[in-house]
Design goal:
With 348 residues, this protein is an alpha+beta fold. The protein folds into two domains: 3-190, Beta Polymerase, domain 2, CATH 3.30.460.10; 221-334. The protein has twelve helices and five strands. It has helices at residues 3-43, 59-69, 94-105, 159-171, 181-218, 227-237, 249-258, 264-273, 275-291, 298-302, 309-321, 323-334; strands spanning 53-56, 83-89, 107-113, 128-133, 152-158. A five-stranded mixed sheet has the order 1-2-5-4-3. α4 (159-171) runs antiparallel to α5 (181-218). The longest helix is centred in the first third of the chain and has 41 residues, at 3-43. It is globular. Mean pLDDT is 84; it is low at 338-344.
């Protein structure tokens, strides 16, 4: 072994020891960032396309990076991608808001919008990259102490962008020049289709906003119930404190249709009729939950609420149609077991 190779081997062993010493801190940092980012985006109405992805870089991956790039660092803590977190959003319009929230919440060391260095045919590689550290005020929390020296690489992209990034990575079509000529037209078409998906989802959201505003101004009580006018109606009738950011209006709509409640007028009548019973149930369940706070969302308990808007509406159904009947219907609708089809042999 040459002197050069011996020096390189010694350096690699040195970094490997550093890696083993800080792997626990890196894992704590990964968990903390995922938890905080999840809560931050949820609280600000940013919709994830899939759960946040994260990893701590493996030693084999780091060793390979040393071999390929000849990194000039003195400590493993200097690796900007030791901890990686990928945030995949459902809607393109949330990108700007998510970027702002992250920039304001973390100590940003560097940032890059990859779209600025890519051609139109490389749509799939568009994403925002941040290298960040925890802000000083976070480090005073005992569970986060000691994490201030490590970096986190944050990637943000839409689900459509991620689909193409994953596919192009698998195909190894990272640059246009690397794509066989007969396939370039098809590849360009796929990237354009995925970009269209992002644009059309934005159009859906804009049209939905316009529809909700029109519905509110027209206040039509006899139109058929749908997810959007149901949300608006419950916000109008029920306390804002009870409203949650992730209410399942679609399931409630199925419940209402089962009981032949098809219009805002019908639902408004039932909720108005049973307001006292609804709030009595709220007080009762809140008292029970406070007796066992570890089993419930303490944030809601601190606000003095138990039911969501959807939950309060179901309490109105129970008051109108009977507790047992409504519970039976809810159980039936929530069952994930598919109905078995029995095949009968024809009689001879």
């Amino acid at each position: 072994m040459s002197d050069n190779e011996q020096d390189q081997h010694s350096t690699t062993d040195h970094f490997k020891i550093q890696y083993q010493d800080c792997i626990g801190l890196a894992e704590r940092l990964r968990e903390a960032v995922v938890e905080q980012v999840s809560e931050l985006l949820k609280a600000n109405g940013v919709t994830l396309g899939v759960p946040i992805e994260s990893r701590v870089k493996t030693w084999n991956s780091i060793a390979d990076k040393f071999d390929r790039k000849r990194l000039e660092i003195k400590n493993i803590n200097e690796l900007e991608d030791l901890v990686g977190v990928r945030i995949i959003l459902l809607f393109r319009r949330d990108l700007e808001n998510a970027n702002r929230l992250l920039s304001n919440s973390f100590n940003v060391i560097s940032s890059e919008d990859t779209a600025e260095r890519l051609s139109e045919s490389e749509f799939g590689y568009q994403s925002q990259h941040f290298v960040v550290q925890l802000p000083a005020n976070w480090l005073s929390v005992p569970s986060l102490s000691g994490l201030g020296t490590l970096f986190v690489e944050l990637q943000i992209r839409t689900l459509a962008q991620h689909i193409w990034a994953a596919a192009s990575h698998k195909l190894q079509y990272k640059q246009k020049s690397g794509v066989p000529l007969p396939l370039r037209r098809t590849i360009n078409r796929v990237s354009a289709l995925l970009e269209t998906v992002d644009l059309e989802f934005d159009r859906v959201l804009e049209e939905r906003t316009a529809y909700v505003e029109t519905t509110q101004s027209a206040n039509s009580e006899t139109d058929p119930l749908n997810v959007d006018n149901l949300r608006t109606l419950l916000s109008d009738l029920l306390p804002s404190e009870n409203k949650s950011t992730d209410e399942n209006y679609a399931n409630l709509l199925q419940n209402l249709f089962h009981f032949k409640i098809n219009t805002p007028e019908q639902l408004r009548s039932i909720i108005g009729k049973h307001l006292n019973a609804i709030y009595a149930s709220e007080v009762k369940e809140l008292k029970k939950a406070r007796a066992h706070p570890s089993e419930h969302d303490t944030t809601r308990l601190d606000r003095g609420v138990f039911f969501t808007h959807v939950g309060l509406a179901r309490e109105a159904l129970r008051a109108e149609f009977g507790n047992q009947r409504v519970n039976n219907i809810l159980t039936e609708m929530m069952s994930d077991k598919p109905k078995r089809r029995v095949s009968r042999k024809p009689k001879k």
